[in-house]
Amino acid sequence: MTLFEQMGGTPVLNKTVTLFYQNVVTDPKISHLFPEDITPVMEKQAQFLTQFLGGPPLYTSVHGHPRMRARHLPFEITRERADAWLSCMRRALEQTVPDASLRDSILERLSSSAYFFVNTEG
């Protein structure tokens, strides 16, 4: 069973993305990196996370190859900002995924990507 299935599929993932972005827009370390209209970003994030966690390839079917590092290069991403992003996601998962070991598995998978996007010292 995939992480996507274990967490509860689309309904839980979508709720997680909603809560995650509620955290992001109030986080002083990363909120300025996101557009005022966060809705399109949320939609892409839900598509990407569905695919990334083992669900259907929604992101690729709509947008092509994710090329996530390239898509994040225009933004100054420091280790501190990656930590803030992961903290926002951790808090969202705590509200949507009751199983602590499953949350840890999801965060571990996301951590490798978050730190891969770091492109600026600071």
TrEMBL record:
Keyword Transport set for record: yes
Keyword flag Endoplasmic reticulum: no
UniProt keyword list: Heme, Iron, Metal-binding, Transport
A Pfam family assignment: Bac_globin
Recorded superkingdom: Bacteria
Family, per entry: Belongs to the truncated hemoglobin family. Group II subfamily.
PANTHER family reported in the protein's UniProt record: TWO-ON-TWO HEMOGLOBIN-3
Annotated protein name in UniProt: Globin
